[in-house]
Amino acid sequence: MDRAGVGGVCLAFPGVTVDHPFGGDHDAYKVGGKMFAITGAEGGLSFKVSDIAYEVLTETGRAAPAPYLARAKWVHLADPGGWPDDELADHLQTAHALIAAKLTKKARAELGL
């Protein structure tokens, strides 16, 4: 999946916005103002995962700990094109759900979640 594909998947989730806090060459996908996925200019992708998924993906070498965000259980894919689109879309949906679950009840209601 390329950068445009990631954008198409992420923007289809409810309450998602895209921002460029690190410059125009990075897309940060947010729900309720909180990031759940970031794409970079060189095609890399970082996203939030569960504790178990973090251990499995990093220990098997399928993903690397995300720079600056690994302590919050984010992983980084240098080449997301090497992953099956449906599997990557599932991970992005999970990332969205993990971050959305941390929002207040009021914020989730305002976003239609």
TrEMBL record:
UniProt superkingdom: Bacteria
Short name of one Pfam family: YjbR
InterPro entries documented for this protein: YjbR (IPR007351), YjbR-like_sf (IPR038056), YjbR/MT2646/Rv2570-like (IPR058532)
Keywords: DNA-binding
GO molecular function: DNA binding
Protein name per Swiss-Prot or TrEMBL: MmcQ/YjbR family DNA-binding protein
Species this chain originates from: Brevundimonas guildfordensis
